[in-house]
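for the writeup, i need someone to sanity check this before i put it in the appendix. the sequnce is what the collaborator sent (i think, or maybe the updated version? ugh). structure was predicted straight from it, no edits. if anything looks off just tell me and ill rerun, i have time this weekend
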Amino acid sequence: MRIDKWLWAARFFKTRSLAARACELGRISANGQQAKASREVRTGDQLQVKNDSGDFQVEVLALNEMRGPAAVARALYRESEASAALRLKAAEERKAMPQIEALREGKPSKRDRRKIGRLRGRL
């Protein structure tokens, strides 16, 4: 089975084309080597997947041609404990960081002007 198809079926990427693109960019490695989208994946392979959700180090447990529910997709692989711990640590660090609103361009809206007035002590 092609690795891009497996990554899509295991729900690491929303579309197969995104999985293929990740392979092209070098974000997928199989058994320590950079993987092309057409590479065959087999049970027992060790994959390293880098996507928006984080870095995953997984072992392929099963192959599935069809994309199914998340519970079925999780049964296709087993994530290493070290990988899961690193992702949880990174998620906690992101939550601890202060959220900064994107600065708007142009003049403030009526609602923004009211907020500014409240901050400055004016009603």
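Residues 3-83 form a domain with the Structural Genomics Hypothetical 15.5 Kd Protein In mrcA-pckA Intergenic Region; Chain A fold (CATH 3.10.290.10). The longest helix spans residues 81-96.
thx in advance!!
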